Amino acid sequence: MVLSIADYVYDSSRSKSPLFGVFDSTRHLVVVDTTSRENDGVFRFLEAAQLWLWPEALIFLVGNKKEVRSSLFRPVFRNSIRSLYLGLPEESLQNEGSNMSLTLYSRCLYCRNGKGKIQILAAWYLGSRQPNISDPFLYQMRTLEGHLLKITTMPFFPYINFKLDLENLDKPVVLLDSLDQRIVEALSSALNFTYEIRPVQDLSIGNLLKNGTWTGLFGDMQRGRADFTFTTSTNPERLTVTDLVRTIEADTLVIVSRKPQLLPQYLVIIRPFTLEVWVYLIISIMLWGVALWLLERTRSNMTGDKSMSLDWSIFYSWAVMLDDTPYNAPRYTSGQMLLGWFLVASLVISTVYRSALVAFLSVQSKTKPIDSFQDLVSRSSWRWGVHDFVMSGQVLLFFLNTNDSAVKYVYKYTETPTITEGLKKTLMGGYSLVGVRKFLQSAIALDFTDDFGQTPLYISREKYNIVTDFGWSLRKGAPYHPLFAYTINRLVDAGLINHWMEEVAASRVRETRKKKNEQKNHVDNLQDADVQEQMVNNEVILGTRHLIGVYLVTLVGFSVSLLVLAGEIVFHTFFVEKDRKVIGTRN
Predict the structure, then answer these.
(1) What is d(CA 334, CA 183) in angstroms, rounded to the nearest whole number?
(2) Distance from the CA of 197 to the CA of which of 8, 38, 107, 271 falls in 20 to 30 A?
(3) How confident is the model over 1-17, as pLDDT tens digits?
(4) Residue 60 pairs with which residues in a beta bridge?
C-alpha cells in the first residue's frame, strides 16, 4: 500500500507525515488507493494529520465503484471541496484489460439541499479515447445550496440581540434587530444557506484551560458543536481553534465618567488663587508685619522713641493688603520705603484678585474631566472598572503587556461589572468605567440619554488602541470561509455595516423611549444631574450662595475671637487676679 502526498511518498514504516507541516493546500495533491486491505489505516492517518483543515487540497481516490460513496463521504473529507474518485469495476481489479470501464466521480459538497451528493463527471473504456473533462470544480462552492449552519452565541447589543430564556438554553432562538442579524440575513440570502442559533450553555465567551481545551463559545467551536459564532474579539489563543472573518474595524478603549461638575459656589471667593498662592500670600503678609515691627523696634532703640507693637504691625499689614487707607504711617525712611513697596505689591495682588473674581462669577468653573488613565489614578478615593464582556482577549493583553505605570495601577485595582452596572455606578459619581468605545456608546445612547439627546456621562478624549479585530469566528477548515470573507468584505467596503451599526442603535433607542413614554413609568437615570443643566437665563451672577464663603469666614473669625476672649478671661481670673491678691496680702 502506497500513499502519495504532494511530492512525498508515505508508507506505514515512516513515523512522520509531511501533512503535519505547513504547505499551500491549493497546490498539493493527496492520492489514496482504497483497494488495499489497509485503507482504513490510511484514512486514520489522514484524520490524525488533520487533512480536514485544508479544504482546498485536491483529493484523488482510486477504488471500486461500489465504494465511491462510502469513500468520498468519510469524515476526513468533510471539508474537502476538490475531491475526485476514479471508479474501477470490481471484476477488473483482478483481470486488467483494454475493455476496462472507468468512471470519474466528484463530490458536490453542498448539493441536494446542503447534504451533498456524488456526481458522475465522465465514463469511458481504458482503450478508448479519453473524454474531454472541463474544470470539475468550476461551480463548486458558489453557494451552500441550502445547507444548515449551526451558530452559537450570546446576547450583546448592538451586535447580537435575542430574548434569552435561561430555563431553555438548549432551544434555538430567534434574533432580534441587531448588527449580526442584518449581516447573517444578507449572507444567507446571497450564499443560500439556512441557520440555527443556540445560546452557549454557560453564557460566556470562554477561557483556555491548562489541558488545552476551551469553555464557553470557543469550547463549542473547538468541539465542533457549531459552525461559527457571531461577533467576538480575537487573540492568538482563540485563533488556534477558529478562523476569523472580520466584520468591524478594530476599536479603542475609552474611559466613561460623569460630565465635569460645577465647583461649589460658596468657594468662589477663594477660587481666584490656588491654595499654594493663598498660603504664600498669608505668610508674606505676616512676615511683612514682623519686618515692619523689627525696623520700628530697631529705630526706637536708637532714638528712644515709641515704636509699634508686634500685634499692631501685623494688623497694619493686613489693613494695607485689604486696601484700607494707611494711617499712622512709619515716621522713618526705612519704614516708609518698606510700606511703599508693600503698597505696590498689594495693588497688583488686589487687582489680579478682583479681575479673576469677576471672571469666576461670570463663568462658573467646573471640575476637570477624566481624559486619560493618568487623570483617573490621580483622583483621590476614586474607583473604576472594566466591563466584564471585554476583560479578556486582546483587552486583557493590553493591560498585562503595558509599560505605563498608570495603566498597570488601573488594572491592579479594577473591578469587572456589567456595562449597565458600571454606568449606573458612574452616574452616581466617584466612579469611571473603562471599555470598548462602540459598546459604551450604544449602552449610553440606549439607557442613559434623555429625549433631547443629552447625557450626563462623558467619554474621554484620549483613546487607547487595542490591536485586535472583531468578527465572526468560524470553525477550523470551514470550506465556506472564503465565501464568507469575500461577501462580508463587500458589505464593509460598501459602508453597509457602519450604516447598519448606527441604524440599529438609533432604532433601539427610539423603541425604548416609545415604550417608556407609553407606560408612563420612565425611570429617570438622570435624576441626579447637577445644576449645569439649568438654563443660562436662570443663573445669578452674584447671589447668597456665592457669599456663603464670606459668611463662613466671618463666622470662623467670630468663633476664634470668642475663644481668645475666653482664654483672656481664664488667664485674667486665675493668674492676674491671683497675683494681685498675693501682693495685697503682703502689703
Answers:
(1) 87
(2) 107
(3) 334 433 333 333 333 44
(4) 31, 84
**Amino acid letter, residue 548:** I
**Strands 3-5, 29-33: pairing kind:** antiparallel
Q: Judge whether 62 and 86 are in contact, CB under 8 Å.
A: yes
Q: Could you tell me which residue, 37 or 280, shows the higher pLDDT? A: 280
CB neighbours of residue 349 within 10 Å:
16
Q: How far apart are CA 386 and CA 402, in angstroms?
A: 16
Residues 311/296, Cβ–Cβ less than 8 Å = no
Higher pLDDT, 297 or 75: 75
- Mention every residue, 6+ apart, whose C-beta is less than 8 A from residue 585: none
User: Which letter does DSSP use for residue 240 in this model?
Assistant: G
| Sign, Cα dihedral of 565, 570, 573, 575 | negative
Please give the helix or strand (H or E) that residue 464 lies within, else none: strand 464-465
Residue from 501, 353, 357, 508 nearest 446 by CA? 508
Express each pLDDT in 465-514 by its tens digit: 875 678 899 999 899 999 999 999 999 989 999 899 889 888 887 887 77
Q: Beta strands 117-125 and 101-108: pairing type?
A: antiparallel
Handedness of CA 552, 554, 555, 560 (dihedral sign): positive
pLDDT the model gives residue 8 = 36
User: Per-residue pLDDT tens for 307-327?
Assistant: 778 888 888 888 888 877 667
* CA 244 centroid distance within chain: 20
| CA dist., res. 334 & res. 327, Å (int) | 17
Residues 458, 261 contacting (CB under 8 angstroms): no
Instruction: Using alpha carbons, select from 95, 93, 85 the residue that is nearest to residue 30.
Output: 85
pLDDT in tens, 428-440: 989 999 988 888 8
CA–CA dist 284, 63 (Å, integer): 105
